Amino acid sequence: MKLVDQLGFVKRNMKKNKLRIFMTVLATTMGCSFLIVLASIGFGLQNSLMEEASSHQPLTQITVNGKMIDETYHEVTEEDLATIGATENVSAVVPQSRIYSHSEVTLEDEFRASVEGIITNFEAEKNSNFRLSEGEFPENENEIIVGYHLHEVLNKFDRTTLEYITTGDSNEELVSYDSNLLGKIVTFSFMDDSSETVFTDEYKIVGIADEPARDWVQDRSVYIGDERREDLLSLAGQEDFYNNVTAHVASVDQTEGVTNALKEEGFMVYSISEELRGINVFFTAFKAGLIFVGTIAVLIASIGIFNTMTMAVTERTHEIGIMKALGANPSVIKRMFLFESASIGLLGSLFGVAIAYGVSIAANFFIPLILEATTNSEGIDITFSYIPLQLVLIATGISVTVACISGFRPAAKATNVNVLSALRREA
């Protein structure tokens, strides 16, 4: 018997008992959709957590700290910078020194803001993940980059009373600078420990840093070139060392190798990829557990498949006897019943996938709305359910496999039907 004839036989037999087949497919559909929806929670939460973690620090960035030598911590030196830069796959090394003294920026003698002074190498920043929302990187010594929120904290003050000016309304809000800072000349200054101004100089703002990924972060930094780093740190009363050193690689695949290489050199390093690897291990186990629980629902549905196929064999005993009398191979008869049980599993999987996608879309839409309403929060952006292609394939594979296993015993029973007994029975 040709394969097309076998499939036609299966189709005809399934049409004979539409209601029974429908209920069996429905049970498989519910089991498959439950498996997918349950496992999709693990995938969704993993994606949300991964996006949240990676938004805090680029995946291609590695934070490098100093070394522990003879139980003593040693800061990163110029020699260390050369070693880091010479490490294979490192595309850029960005050394930064923060000015811990109280720093201020003054604009047009009318606006003032407390800022965080950062001394950095702009050429290295350009080759790293540093992004600008406006402008360009400085090319001259008197040019700087400022943080994204500096214009918001740059408030108007009275030079006579040395007090900030408010709007005068009931809210008493400070008057902030409302124009674009790009191209403006500002005065940057900082004080020593005795609150005396020890440095003042004018700079031109040529670039504005990109908005921070974290909404609650207010970037009021002022990035100054490192041409006068030693002098500025000396005036601030600080030791000459780098507070923050980051190494950058071209792709995420290179992060782990560079991280391990720097550790072998004795540096204490951190990269978000290490944290994400631990998260991935946890969620892999979590998703496997959810798939296991979901599989139980499919196994419960398989009881219906077993009963349906057993009844099908009993009802078709006469037909089986005729096929065997005409010389049909027992393996062909067995294959046809397995095709039928597999078809039930496949149909249930297709409908289950469609239902699971609908539930997933609804969950991602309504659950954030419910959370916002119950917690009085706004802008909750969490993916509760995510269905990747591999989950669909896994669920479909499990459903079809379980269906075939459920139909195996009835199919084997069909091949053992006695021809004479079968032919004596009425069709």
Describe the structure.
This protein is of the alpha+beta class and 427 residues long. The protein folds into 2 domains: 202 residues, no CATH class; 190 residues, no CATH class. It contains 12 helices and 13 strands. Helix 2 crosses helix 10. The longest helix is centred in the C-terminal third of the chain and has 46 residues.
Structure characteristics:
2 domains, six-stranded mixed β-barrel, 13 strands, 12 helices, 427 residues, alpha+beta
Broad shape: elongated
Provide mean pLDDT, rounded: 83
Rounded to the nearest angstrom, the radius of gyration is: 35 Å
The CA-CA distance between the termini, in Å, is 21 Å
Helical fraction equals 40-55%
Topology diagram in text:
Layout: H1 3-16, H2 18-56, E1 61-69, E2 72-74, H3 78-86, E3 90-107, E4 111-120, H4 122-126, E5 132-135, E6 143-146, H5 150-153, E7 155-158, E8 163-164, E9 185-191, E10 197-209, E11 221-225, H6 229-235, E12 244-249, H7 255-264, E13 267-271, H8 272-315, H9 317-325, H10 330-375, H11 389-415, H12 419-424
Parallel strand pairs: 4-11, 6-10
Antiparallel strand pairs: 1-2, 1-12, 1-13, 3-4, 3-9, 3-12, 4-7, 5-10, 6-11, 7-8, 9-10
Helix pairs in contact: 1-10, 2-8, 2-10, 2-11, 8-10, 8-11, 10-11
